[in-house]
Amino acid sequence: MPQRTIVEAINNALAEEMESDPLVMLLGLDVGRLGGVFRTTTGLVERFGAERVVDTPLAEASIIGASLGLALAGMVPVAEIQFLGFTAQGFHQIGPQLGKFRQRSRGRYHCQVTIRAPFGGGIRSPEFHSDAVEAQFVQTPGIKIVMPSNPYDAKGLLLEAIRDPDPVLFCEPDRLYRSGRAEVPDGAYTVPFGKAAVVREGEHITLVAWSAAVELCLRAADKLAEEGVSATVVDLRTLVPLDIETLCNQVAKTGRCVIVHEAPLSAGFGAEVSATLMEQIFYDLDAPVARVGAFDVPFPAASLEDYYLPSLDRVVAAVRKTLQS
Amino acid sequence: MTAGPFALSKNKDVQERHSVLQADGTIATGAQPRMEEEFLLEALRWMMKSRLYDTRVISLQRQGQFGVFSPGMGQEASIVGSAMALDPTRDWIVPQYRELMATVHHGLPLEIITAQYLGKIGPARIPDGVRVLPTQVSIAAQLPQATGLAWGLRLRGEDAVVMAYIGEGGSSEGDFHEALNLAGVTKSPIVFFLQNNQWAISTSRRVQSATASFAFRAAGYGFPGVQVDGNDVMAVYDVAVAAVERARKGEGPTLIESVTYRMSFHNTTDNPSRYEDPKEHEEARTRDPIERVQKYLTGLGLWDKKREAALTEELTQENEAALQLAFAAPAPVPADVFANVYDHPPQRVVQQEAELLDGRRD
Ligand SMILES: Cc1ncc(C[n+]2csc(CCOP(=O)(O)OP(=O)(O)O)c2C)c(N)n1
Ligand SMILES: [Mg+2]
Prior knowledge:
CATH superfamily of the largest domain in chain A: Thiamin diphosphate (ThDP)-binding fold, Pyr/PP domains
Strand content of chain B: 5-15%
Strand order of the largest sheet of chain B: 1-7-8-4-3-2
Oligomer: heterodimer
Helix content of chain A: 25-40%
Order of helices and strands of chain A: EHEHEHEHHEHEHEEEEHEEHEHEHH
Shape of chain B: globular
Largest sheet of chain B: 6 strands, parallel
Mean pLDDT of chain A: 98
Structural class of chain B: alpha/beta
Radius of gyration of chain A: 19 Å
Strand order of the largest sheet of chain A: 3-2-4-5-7-6-12
CATH superfamily of the largest domain in chain B: Thiamin diphosphate (ThDP)-binding fold, Pyr/PP domains
Low-confidence stretches of chain B: 1-9
Number of helices of chain A: 12
Distance between the termini of chain A: 45 Å
Helix content of chain B: 40-55%
CATH class of the largest domain in chain A: Alpha Beta
CATH architecture of the largest domain in chain B: 3-Layer(aba) Sandwich
Number of strands of chain B: 8
CATH topology of the largest domain in chain A: Rossmann fold
Number of domains of chain B: 2
Bound molecules: thiamine diphosphate, magnesium ion
Number of helices of chain B: 12
CATH class of the largest domain in chain B: Alpha Beta
Low-confidence stretches of chain A: none
Radius of gyration of chain B: 21 Å
């Protein structure tokens, strides 16, 4: 079976979907000749032409707002926002507009729009390029939020996103774009939304994460194994919809939980996960649910990002503390 | 002040490009430049300093010793000619990120802006009294802020003009249009200096706008727009001075489209060979902003190879001294993660800082 990086898996998913569905089109900054700043769309303009792979003017609000309109006209737009932090410029067209359009039109219209955006720290990007703002969109209902952590899921979740009749924000972990290859089959397959993956099974504690933080949790689990601690690692894959069942089952089994995310701690999606566990399985918990996030300050200069982001040490320390209580 | 460049914007179909010093180093017929020879030598000095700095830090970046950097190569006449129209003791510069030498000309020490690219924190603070805002990477976000700054300075009774920089790519953002509109309505003392370097990363200028000239847009906001040969420092200076004078007299904003060419690349992570036609690049090379000044001054007997070598040496030393200072400045420390966020940080943030610094969790 072919081995692909996340970049290659996304490129492959886009190419195959454009091949099979002539209504699918890509639009965004530098997605054409350049193939996107991370090369996720390499070769697509050559293959499908400049009408279906469109370099747009530098304006995020219109990339997203126009995608909404293109969808109303019957196209299937896949918009790329160059970095998730720059959804800020188009925020109104995402949350208040895409998220509400079905409701506002009394069900007359829906928006089959996918917004792809790389994000996250760890690659020494300039200011504003690393912000993990996924939780902001959880507060604008009507949008599904997809956070793949590996090449297989990246392709399967992206195809699911493009085919979903509702708007989907698809956040790509740029730190992991080329970090490793995994089996990614040729041909269409989908990974359903709302189905978390149990990436590792353990006995003592359950680590819950999404996107690049899954990789961090796996490293933490390796390190903890050396101390005789065996950890379950749950990859939520999608925040909206949230797989409450898998989450609760996996935490109830170990009775302890640490949630890890790259976003600032306060009101990060970890808070939602923690509250859900409290409501659903309070009596199965042997210790308070802990969270490890970035600190509650803006993303600092790249030279400081290793201090700011959740680190292996901080995850391991949180696990030790949770095991002691 | 003659009607000068502003007369040009009355022609609604073709935007004439203000030009003084042509690519071959001769003065355009009928041109009446404001820049005298002494001042032109000063401009040349700053343009050469800019080019030498870019060349040096690109090579440092290639050796892993410098951060991601967007050079101003090819745009030196735009960058320097516009800044020279300002008075650093009262006017303000609101940069995007490709105007480093404009901010240095305006009083920001080179070692300080260099320290920023080295990831330093304290040593990269803009000194009090230097009327420059930080570089802005979030495209066009600086423009509404610049309009507010200009408006506020007028409300405070200050005799100050704001020079705000933007790329042709940035001019597609909503923030650009809202900022210009508000500036027109408030008649704020501001000059919008749009560097049309033909590229926004890999995206051609033709993709940004169907208009023949970005300067035409000003008409929609009720103030003049002018187009200038952005590789002609004498012409850039002319239009910039005229716009600054206009703003100072209370006549409101001006939009300047400075037509130039990005001679290097978007930034040190970019490889233009994927999208740039080499012919276009070669053609742009013949319009080099520095060479034409050197040719012209040579014709006047004010420039020769010897002088060039001497000035190059002097500027290299100057730049090197700034680089040394920046490298020697204190490296960032973990506490810098928490510095300069709040005046009085919330309790939880204070605890997080303690957690990071002491490895403590409480
Ligand atoms: C809001 C926003 N969107 C996208 C980007 C990514 N980006 C950085 S520079 C750039 C191109 C800017 O082009 P232009 O305004 O012409 O300035 P130039 O780089 O040519 O000086 C883009 C798209 C960004 N920094 N901010
Ligand atoms: Mg540009």
